[in-house]
Structure to design on (411 residues):
C-alpha cells in the first residue's frame, strides 16, 4: 500500500481518551483504557493486537453499540458519543481534596474559600455531564433536522412552481425524501463489517432482505428502487442478481462476507469499520475480500478502520497502524515506519511472530516474548502516549522516551 496515497489532512473520526469498562461485581474489566486516535478522511487505519486486547470493543464503542464509559467520539466534527466517568472522577477527587484541606485548617475564611472552590468544580463537572448526555442523545436528531431542511430547500419552491403531473411527481419524491431524512441518523454514515459472516447474517432472511434492511429502516418504500440498489450492490461485490432470493446457508464463507460488505455499502457510508473481515476465511478468499475492500475504497472514497491480528494483511492494506495491548494503544505510526522501526517491545513481539514462506528463514526465526513486568518499570514514572518521531507515537515513560529517541537517531 502506498502511504502517500492519502494526502488529506481532514480528520473524519476523532477518538479522544475513550474508556470502555465492564463491571462484574467488584471487578472492573478495562477493555479499552484511555485510547485516542485520529482517522483522516480517505485513509485506512489498521488496528492490531492479540485476541482480547480491546480492538473489537473499540470499534463497537465508536459505532455506539456500547455506551462508552469515558472520553469522546467525534465524527465529522460532531460529538456522537461521550462518557461521563472522567467528570465523576474529577468530582470525587475534588470532594476528597476539600475534606483533606478542611481537616488541616481551623480558619473559617479558608474553609469558606475551599467550599466555594469545591462548588465551582462540582458545578462545572455537572454542566459537562449534562452536555455529554445531551450530545449523545441528540446528535442524530440534529443531523436529521439538517437533512430535512435540505430536502425542504430542494423541493418546496419547485413544487410550488410546478403544475399537473410534474407537481404530483415532485410531491411524491418530496414525501419519500422527507421520510428518509427524518429517519436518518448520523451514526449510519459509519457502517460495520462483522468478523463472523455466518453469525452476522439472519438465517431466516433472504439476501435481498438482509442487504436492503438499512434502506427499509431509513424509510425507503419504493420496491423498484430497493431492488435496483440491491442488484447494484450484489454485482459490485462480485455476486449476481439471482443470489438475491437465496438464504445465507446457501453460500460459502467468502460469499457471506461479500453479502455483509454489500449490506454496509448500500447505506452509502463515509466510513467502514471492518472487524477482522477475513480472519474466518481461507487464505485465497482473504486476498479476494481485501482486494474488494481496496476497490470499494477507491470507488467510493471510503475511510476504513481495519481491525485485524494478521500483521501481514494489515501492512498491505493500511496507511497507518495502531497497536493495542490490554486495552491500551501502545504504538502508532505509518505502516512503513512501524515495520521498519518498531519501538515498543510488544510491537517487536508481534512482528517476530509473522511467518514467511522461506524455510531457511523459518529455521532461524526467533520469537520475541513480551513480558511487561520485565520490560518496564513504571513504579516511579508513569507512561503516556508520546511522539518519538513525527507521526510515530509510543506508550512510554521519560526514561523509555529518551531511549527510543536515541535508538531512532542511531539508525
Amino acid at each position: 500500500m502506498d502511504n502517500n496515497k492519502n494526502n488529506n489532512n481532514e480528520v473524519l473520526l476523532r477518538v479522544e481518551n475513550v474508556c470502555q469498562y465492564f463491571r462484574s461485581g467488584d471487578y472492573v474489566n478495562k477493555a479499552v483504557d484511555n485510547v485516542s486516535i485520529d482517522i483522516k478522511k480517505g485513509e485506512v487505519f489498521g488496528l492490531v493486537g492479540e485476541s482480547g486486547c480491546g480492538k473489537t470493543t473499540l470499534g463497537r464503542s465508536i459505532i455506539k453499540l456500547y455506551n462508552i464509559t469515558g472520553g469522546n467520539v467525534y465524527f465529522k466534527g460532531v460529538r456522537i458519543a461521550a462518557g461521563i466517568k472522567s467528570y465523576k472522577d474529577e468530582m470525587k477527587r475534588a470532594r476528597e481534596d476539600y475534606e483533606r484541606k478542611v481537616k488541616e485548617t481551623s480558619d473559617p475564611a479558608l474553609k469558606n474559600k475551599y467550599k466555594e472552590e469545591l462548588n465551582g468544580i462540582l458545578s462545572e463537572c455537572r454542566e459537562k455531564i449534562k452536555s455529554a448526555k445531551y450530545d449523545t442523545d441528540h446528535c442524530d436528531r440534529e443531523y436529521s433536522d439538517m437533512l430535512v431542511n435540505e430536502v425542504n430547500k430542494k423541493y418546496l419552491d419547485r413544487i410550488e412552481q410546478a403544475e399537473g403531473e410534474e407537481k404530483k411527481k415532485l410531491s411524491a419524491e418530496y414525501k419519500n425524501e422527507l421520510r428518509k431524512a427524518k429517519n436518518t441518523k448520523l451514526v449510519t454514515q459509519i457502517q460495520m463489517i462483522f468478523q463472523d459472516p455466518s453469525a452476522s447474517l439472519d438465517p431466516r432472511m433472504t439476501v435481498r432482505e438482509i442487504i436492503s434492511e438499512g434502506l427499509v429502516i431509513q424509510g425507503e418504500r419504493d420496491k423498484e428502487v430497493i431492488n435496483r440498489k440491491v442488484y447494484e450492490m450484489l454485482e459490485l461485490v462480485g455476486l449476481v442478481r439471482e443470489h438475491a432470493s437465496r438464504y445465507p446457508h446457501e453460500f460459502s464463507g467468502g460469499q457471506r462476507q461479500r453479502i455483509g460488505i454489500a449490506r454496509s455499502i448500500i447505506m452509502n457510508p463515509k466510513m467502514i469499520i471492518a472487524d477482522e473481515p477475513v480472519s474466518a476465511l481461507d487464505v485465497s478468499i482473504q486476498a479476494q475480500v481485501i482486494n474488494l475492500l481496496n476497490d470499494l475504497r477507491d470507488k467510493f472514497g471510503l475511510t476504513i478502520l481495519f481491525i485485524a491480528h494478521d500483521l501481514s494483511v494489515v501492512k498491505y492494506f493500511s496507511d497507518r497502524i495502531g497497536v493495542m495491548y490490554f486495552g491500551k494503544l501502545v504504538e502508532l505510526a505509518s505502516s512503513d515506519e512501524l515495520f521498519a522501526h518498531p519501538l515498543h517491545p510488544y510491537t517487536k513481539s508481534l512482528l517476530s511472530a509473522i511467518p514467511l514462506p522461506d524455510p531457511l528463514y523459518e529455521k532461524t526465526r526467533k520469537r520475541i516474548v513480551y513480558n511487561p513486568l520485565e520490560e518496564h518499570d513504571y513504579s516511579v514514572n508513569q507512561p503516556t502516549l508520546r511522539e518519538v518521531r513525527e507521526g510515530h507515537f509510543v506508550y512510554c515513560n521519560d526514561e523509555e522516551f529518551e531511549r527510543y529517541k536515541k535508538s531512532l537517531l542511531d539508525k
The chain has two domains: 10-83+310-411, 190-306.
